Amino acid sequence: MMPIYTAPMQTDKTERDGQLEQSPSRLFPAYVLAEMLMVLVIIALFSSLAMLNITGIVGKSRFKNKAQELIDLMRMAVIAAAETDKRYEVIFDTTEQTYTLRQITSPDLSEILDDDIIQTSQFNENCQLSYIEFDDAWRTSEDLEMAFFRAGRSGWQSGGKIVLLDSSGQEYSVIVNRLNRIIELKKGNVELLVPKENVFF
Q1: CA–CA distance from 127 to each of 63, 138, 154 (Å)?
Q2: 45-187 has which CATH code?
Q3: Which pLDDT does position 119 carry in this prediction?
Q4: pTM of the predicted model, to two decimals?
Q5: How far apart are CA 9 and CA 20, in angstroms?
Q6: Of the residues 60, 75, 129, 195, which has the maximum number of CB atoms within 10 A of its CB?
Q7: Residue 174 contacts residue 185 (beta carbons within 8 Å)
Q8: Please, what are the averages of pLDDT over each run of 10 residues along the chain (201 residues)?
Q9: Which 8-state DSSP code applies to residue 150?
Q10: Cβ pair 178, 135 in contact under 8 A
Q11: Cα–Cα separations (whole angstroms), residue 115 to 27, 86, 104, 105, 152
């Protein structure tokens, strides 16, 4: 009879001297969980930075749109005055945060008729009216809340600047030049140039 060879029984590789070694496969889920948490934190950080950036871009875009709307209205007033020989004015109210374009039909400039009003618009949280200063050093204040830019055939009666604030509080100046009818938006609180000649209204 042939002898039967039996191989010695192999014990578990993790068992030594009656003690169990921790298998690397048991630690793997903990590593994966930690890595996933780190990835989620990084994604959340980049997402919040992207949202802040997008919010800032949208806010600036809304400010520029509102400022451009004001500039277009003032250009329309001065061009219409030059072409039609009529008089127009843009009325600003710093308290109500509004501006109104109207045609002047009465010799009494303080008399504002409903039929004279062409358009009224409101400033908003993205574009706020801070104050207005004219090139004769007169400016709006708590006591003087209204300001008037009047345009006749010869151009603007007075030049000045309209200081606007964006949603972050950054100042911008809408410059109204009485000599050349140019109206432009500039960043910051721009110093006014005083004209050497008067324009007859």
Answers
A1: 5, 23, 30
A2: 3.55.40.10
A3: 93
A4: 0.68
A5: 18
A6: 129
A7: yes
A8: 54 50 57 78 78 64 92 94 92 95 87 86 94 90 88 92 94 91 92 62 48
A9: E
A10: yes
A11: 82, 15, 10, 9, 19
For residue 74, the cross-strand partners are: none
Instruction: Say what the pLDDT of residue 55 is.
Output: 62
What is residue 143's three-state secondary structure?
coil
Sheet with 87-93, side-by-side order of all strands: 117-122, 98-104, 87-93, 146-152, 155-156
Task: Parse the chain into domains and list their residue ranges.
Answer: 45-187
Exposed/middle/buried for residue 29 (C-beta within 10 Å: 0-12, 13-18, 19+) = exposed
Whether residue 153 contacts residue 82, with contact meaning beta carbons closer than 8 Å, is answered with yes
| Confidence at residue 108, expressed as pLDDT on a 0 to 100 scale | 81
Please name which of 195, 163, 117 lies closest in space to residue 175, comparing C-alpha atoms: 163
